[in-house]
C-alpha cells in the first residue's frame, strides 16, 4: 500500500474527491493523514469522520516560513508518505521544503498554467477575456505555481460568466482531474525526471489524448 498525505487550508473539496476515489476504486494506496495550516479548515472534519488522522500546524503562530516549514515537514514525515498532495494548501513553500519532496509532491492550481499563477485566477481570467480556462496538476518545484505539468482540464469561458459561475465550472473538473492524476502517480504511470514529467508508457498516454 502506498501512503498519501494531503495538505489543505480550507474546504477541502479536492481532498474529499481523492478520498472518495481511493475508496470507491480501491486504490493500492491509503490516505494516511490530512494536515492543515488552519484549525478552522472545514475539510478536517470530513477527514476525521472518514477515519483519517488529522493534524494542524497553525501557520499564524510562526514568525518565519523556515520554522513553519520545518515543523510541517516533521509532521508529514511521521506518516512516511510516498506522495504529498497539496489540495488548496494556500502557503508559499521554502525551497528546502520543496526539495525534500522533489518528485513526490503534487499541486492543483485553478488555471491553465502558465497563465494566471497566484491568487484570484477566475476573476483574472474573466478580466483578461480568455475563451478557455481550467485547472492544472503539476509537480511542485521552487517557483510558485510552476513545475512540470502532469494533467490539465479545460473549460469554456461563457458570455455572462461571473467569478462564482466560472470557479464552479473549473472546480467540477478539478474533482475529476486530481483524483485521476494522483491515482496515475500511485500506479507509476508517470514520474518526474530531470525536471520533466516522464510517462512510463508513452504510446498509451498519447492514445488517451
Ligand atoms: C481549488 O480550486 C484549488 O485549485 C485552489 O484552491 C481551491 C481549493 O478548494 N488552489 C489554489 O489556488 C492553490 N494556489 P478545496 O479546498 O475545496 O479543494
TrEMBL record:
Transmembrane segments: none annotated. Catalyzes the transfer of a formyl group from 10-formyltetrahydrofolate to 5-phospho-ribosyl-glycinamide (GAR), producing 5-phospho-ribosyl-N-formylglycinamide (FGAR) and tetrahydrofolate. GO terms for molecular function: phosphoribosylglycinamide formyltransferase activity. Keywords: Purine biosynthesis, Transferase. Gene3D superfamilies: Formyl transferase, N-terminal domain. It comes from the Bacteria. GO terms for cellular component: cytosol. This is Phosphoribosylglycinamide formyltransferase. The active site is at residue 109. The keyword Transferase applies. The keyword Transferase applies. The record marks 145 as: Raises pKa of active site His. Its EC number is 2.1.2.2. Pathway: Purine metabolism; IMP biosynthesis via de novo pathway; N(2)-formyl-N(1)-(5-phospho-D-ribosyl)glycinamide from N(1)-(5-phospho-D-ribosyl)glycinamide (10-formyl THF route): step 1/1. Coiled coil: none annotated. It holds the Pfam family Formyl_trans_N. Belongs to the GART family. It comes from Noviherbaspirillum pedocola. SUPFAM superfamilies: Formyltransferase. N(1)-(5-phospho-beta-D-ribosyl)glycinamide binds at residues 12-14. The gene is purN.
Amino acid at each position: 500500500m502506498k501512503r498519501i498525505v494531503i495538505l489543505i487550508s480550507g474546504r477541502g473539496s479536492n481532498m474529499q474527491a481523492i478520498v472518495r476515489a481511493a475508496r470507491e476504486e480501491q486504490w493500492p494506496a491509503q490516505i494516511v493523514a490530512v494536515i492543515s495550516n488552519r484549525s478552522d479548515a472545514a475539510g478536517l472534519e470530513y477527514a476525521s469522520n472518514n477515519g483519517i488522522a488529522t493534524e494542524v500546524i497553525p501557520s499564524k503562530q510562526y514568525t518565519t516560513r523556515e520554522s513553519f516549514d520545518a515543523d510541517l515537514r516533521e509532521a508529514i514525515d511521521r506518516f512516511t508518505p510516498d506522495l504529498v498532495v497539496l489540495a488548496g494548501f494556500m502557503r508559499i513553500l521554502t525551497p528546502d521544503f520543496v526539495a525534500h519532496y522533489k518528485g513526490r509532491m503534487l499541486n492543483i492550481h485553478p488555471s491553465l498554467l502558465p497563465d494566471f499563477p497566484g491568487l484570484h485566477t477566475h476573476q483574472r481570467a474573466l478580466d483578461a477575456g480568455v475563451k478557455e480556462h481550467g485547472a492544472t496538476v503539476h509537480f511542485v518545484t521552487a517557483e510558485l505555481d510552476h513545475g512540470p505539468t502532469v494533467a490539465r482540464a479545460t473549460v469554456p469561458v461563457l458570455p455572462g460568466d461571473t467569478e462564482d459561475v466560472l470557479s464552479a465550472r473549473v472546480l467540477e473538473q478539478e474533482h475529476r482531474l486530481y483524483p485521476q492524476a494522483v491515482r496515475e502517480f500511485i500506479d507509476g504511470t508517470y514520474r518526474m525526471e530531470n525536471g520533466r514529467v516522464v510517462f512510463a508508457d508513452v504510446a498509451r498516454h498519447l492514445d488517451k489524448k
